[in-house]
Each structure stands twice: as C-alpha cells, then as structure tokens.
Amino acid sequence: MTTPEETKNPMRILKGVAALALTAVLLTACSSASPTATVAPVASSTPVPSAAATPTPTPDACAPANLATQTAGVLTLGADNPAYPPYYNPSATNAAPWELGDPTNGQGFEGAVAAALAKELGFDAAKTTWVVAPFTNAIGPGAKAFDVYLTQVSYSADRAQAVDLSDGYYTVAQSVVALKGSALAATTSIAALKDFQFGAQVGTTSYALINDVIKPAKEAKVYDTNDAAVEALKNGQIDGLVVDLPTAFYVTAAQVDNGAIVGQFAPTGDAEHFSVVLDKGSSLTACVNAALGRMTASGELAKITQEWLADKANAPVFQP
C-alpha cells in the first residue's frame, strides 16, 4: 500500500484540500478536517526490526566519504510520484517533477523521516537529491537509481528476496473504507465482513489481508493502482476498499467525499511495518539500520510520527 504506499493517479484539484484537511486530522500533534471523532490510539508507531538483522557497522564505515552512494558525497533518495500527503506534503510551488506532495521540502511523515535519516547519515540538505522511482520498479529486482527509497513499502519476506529492506520506521494497521450509509459502514466484526465485495491494489499487503483475514465469500477485486480501487468504490463496483490506516485518512479526507473508515484490524505479533528500500546487497543497509536505531533511541522517530501520523481516528478495531 500498503500501502497507500501504494497509490497512483494524481488528483491535482485536491492538493490544497488534502494538505489542509490532513493537517487537521493527523495532528494529535495522518499514509497524509478528516473524521472529527477520535478514539484511543490503536496502531502502534513504534519502529520494529526487520526479520533479517544486519551487522552493526563501524562508525568509519558509515562516514559519508566512505559510503558507496550513487554519486560520491551525495545521498540520492527515491519516492513514487505522485507523492501523496500525509507522507509527503506539498510546497507552495512543488519542485519539478513532483505532483501533490513535494519530497524535497522535508515535510510530511516520510519527507521528515527521509530528511532526518539523511542528516543522521551525515548528509545535509545540500548533499541530498531526489529521484522519481515507481513503486513496482523500486521493490523489484534490478539496479536502482536511488540509494534509499521511502514510499510506504511494507516489509515482506518475498520483497526482501529482490531488495534490501531496512528495519521498520513505522508500524501500521490495515483498515476498511466504505461509503457512508452503506451496510458495510455499520459493520463491526471480521465475521460480518465476509459477505461484502472488497478490492485493493495488486501485490499489496492490503490485498493479502482480504484473502488471509477477511476471507470473503466473493473473490476480491484487484486493481493496478490504489486510485483505480478508489474509483471502483466511488462507482459502487466494490463495497469496501482495504488500505493501511494512514492511507485511509487521505482517501476519506480528499478522495471520497462520502467515504468513512469502517474500522481497522488490530496489529498482530508480527505487525506490518514500513521499511526503507535499498538495492539488494547494498553496502548502505547496515548504516541505514544503525541510523534508524539511533533515531528510535533518541525519540526522533516517535516525534516525527506524532507530528505527521497521529494514531487517533474514527476507526474502531474490528472484533472477531
């Protein structure tokens, strides 16, 4: 997604709406004027380690001058485009070629994480650059045009076969979005979800959850992009859209006027988390994990998460 993580097709007319709406809903201090009611936090924002641990590098090995980056002395960061709020917030005038959000301004959840990570690795703003990398290309095999990539990439063992995935920087929950007033919108249990028609973006953890957790009677519909799935919801082709909770904030605030977050699924013991993507076997992976570890220990990641992705929303946890 997931991941929004996992969205496509810009909606330019919503740029201002999305930025203002999501700022209001996501500030406890949201993947982002959205739902006004709130509940206690249910989606943990505590970074978690990935399944495959990497050795702790020596400080000298992680000095900027010693890192084998795409361009010597420069850290190249990648993101999908459009870069959606609340992960990347727009500038007054976005730097080309970015649409909706602007990764270069250090704002939005992943924009702030990326800026802090670069700084922790020893690269100030003048020594960083951004490139567009489509989500499917970024997580697939083959040479990369970036050093690190942040676009709501959820860790999975399958993905880790093609690329390096860092320790987690955000733990997420999956959620269901439906149209207000629909039968699905009143559903409170996983068992009651089984009779509805669901859809999600292809290859996402959201799609996997439909099949593995909801196990609906009707085969889930799959879409090339999350925006295509959103259109299917708006047109009544599906009853519910499954996306991660931060993305649900954006969908209901800026994409579906009469959309509502029906609920979310409690994270399991092996909760989903977002990882930084690097080329397979990258010499930077251990240094990135070490930097994320320091950002966790110092509370910096928690502070960024609190500012940009509040864990409160009108999204009760589905009961069995």
Outline type: elongated
Global mean pLDDT: 83
Q: Reading side by side through the largest sheet, how are the strands ordered? A: 7-6-8-5-9
Structural class: alpha/beta
Our estimate of the beta-strand percent is: 15-25%
Distance linking N and C termini: 24 Å
Going by CATH, what is the homologous superfamily of the largest domain? Periplasmic binding protein-like II
CATH topology of the largest domain: D-Maltodextrin-Binding Protein, domain 2
Count of discrete structural domains:
2
The helix count comes to: 9
Please summarize the sheet with the most strands: 5 strands, mixed
| Cα-based radius of gyration, to the nearest Å | 19 Å
Helices and strands, with pairings:
Elements: H1 15-26, E1 75-79, H2 109-120, E2 128-132, H3 135-138, E3 148-149, E4 164-171, E5 174-179, H4 190-193, E6 198-201, H5 205-214, E7 221-223, H6 226-234, E8 240-244, H7 245-255, E9 259-264, E10 273-278, H8 285-298, H9 300-308
Parallel strand pairs: 1-2, 1-3, 6-7, 6-8
Antiparallel strand pairs: 4-10, 5-8, 5-9
